[in-house]
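Quick bug: Raffinose/stachyose/melibiose transport system permease protein output formatted oddly.
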Amino acid sequence: MNRTLARITASGVLILLAVIVGLPFYYIVVNTFKSQPQMELNPIALPSSLDLDNYIQVFATSDVGRAFLNTAIVTAVSVALMLAVGSMAAFSLLYRGGRFSTIAGGILLAAFLVPFQSTIIPLYQLVVNAGLADSLQGLIAIYLGGSVFCYFIIVGYMRSVPMEILEAARIDGAGPLRVYWSIVLPLIRPVLITVGVFQIMWVWNDYISPTIFLSSPSNNTLVLLAEQAVAQFTTNWPAFMTVTVIVLIPMLVLFITMQKYIVDGLTSGSVKG
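Here's what came back:
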């Protein structure tokens, strides 16, 4: 009886939390199918009809396609480079070991603890001096700082990989690059997927970096387009929410699709042996 009551209570709490978390998303989505007067009359109610005028207006008046392509390019290239740099750094420090690895790990930890906001001005100066200001390449270079986060997650998982496997490959004549590519990468694939999903969501939804390092409309990302929609559509909040939904849908699909792999990546390395 007590166990049944506990399950009912837990289910009720989870349902309540799900409603609280899902209500803002519901509010945004339903209002994309309403006109401004309909939204002001009852913003919570379901739309009376499936009206796609807001989506048509957004695609007709905004360069959504270019912004989507810019965001996809920056996200794909940035995350691929972050995973490559982070995994190679973790492999190198564990593979070689020694005092140098300890010192390098400490330097990376110190870099990880520095808030991004405190480095904005020197980063901007570096980007300008490198001739990468207001460019997608410069934005990608900024995101490479996220390799440190990838390193710390991957190195913790990589410690669960039996070093005997790497030693056997080295005895058989495999060089560091061959060991990394043929043995280490397949073994750490779960954590690569997990970290990759987290970094994709970060880069895709990031607002601060594109706002600071991009200025040309042709380089707009989807988040910048959503922010500009407030001024573009003045008080037309259904149109603004339509842009927001366009930004959210890819990440929602990604998270639902990769949810199983995220859980596997977070739990697989928790038990060694």
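Actually, after a second look the formatting is fine. Residues 162 and 273 are 8 Å apart (CA to CA). Closing.
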